[in-house]
Design brief:
mainly alpha
């Protein structure tokens, strides 16, 4: 039982550290809270949390297998690099060509929970984040490779 509390506490700390920097989901939740109210912001956050829980579970299940497959691991490293470079280029492009359009993503008829779930599910940075932290927690003996 003590081990479960240790894993739970480590998971809370890692998740908290991951949510500290201002990111698209944090800013979107704040914007929804300002424009649509706290209830919709909480529903958005719960949707985002649901997707993150799925990512954590998938990364824990797949991490051990992926680490053993060096070729796939190298391919994932390159894919991550390509995604980060593409996001950086898109950010610079957007900064150089500002528009006065409304935020199409937040101004829609989609329920807040589904919007949070969708935005979190397409966020590519969660996969390497949780793969990295899972590796650290496994090597420190906090997480054990069992169900």
């Amino acid at each position: 039982m003590r081990q479960l509390f240790r894993v739970f506490g480590a998971g809370l700390v890692v998740s908290f550290l991951g949510s500290l920097p201002l990111g698209t989901l944090n800013i979107a939740a704040m914007q929804i809270g300002i424009t649509e109210g706290v209830k919709n912001a909480i529903l958005f956050s719960l949707g985002s949390l649901t997707a993150e829980m799925v990512y954590v579970r998938l990364s824990l299940v797949a991490m051990d297998w992926v680490r053993k497959q060096e070729r796939i691991f190298k391919m994932l490293e390159w894919m991550t690099l390509i995604i980060i470079v593409a996001l950086a280029v898109a950010s610079f492009y957007a900064a150089m060509h500002p528009t006065q359009n409304k935020n199409v993503l937040l101004n829609n008829k989609l329920p807040s929970y589904l919007l949070g779930l969708t935005m979190s599910a397409i966020n590519p940075i969660q996969i390497p984040f949780w793969f990295g932290w899972s590796t650290v927690l496994l090597t420190k003996g906090i997480l054990l490779p069992r169900t």
